[in-house]
Amino acid sequence: MPPPGLLVIHTEGDRVRGLGHVSRCSAWADEWSRRGGRVLWMLDGDEAASGLIQPGQEVRIMRWQNGVAGSLPDLSAEVTLVDSYTATAGALETIAAMAGQTVFIDDLWRGWPAGLVVHPAPDQRPPEAPAAHPDSVWLEGPRWHPLRGPFVDLSPRSPTRERVERVLVVFGGGDLRSIGATMADLAHAVWPEAAVDLVLGAGQERPVTSPHLTVHQALDAAAMAQLMQDADVAISGAGQTIFELARCGTPTVMVGIADNQRANLEQWPALCGFIDAGSWDGADLPDRVRKGLIALGPARARQDISERACRIVDGQGVRRLFDHLGQVSLGPGQIPDRFGHAEPPRIA
Question: How many domains does the chain contain in total?
Answer without folding.
Answer: 2
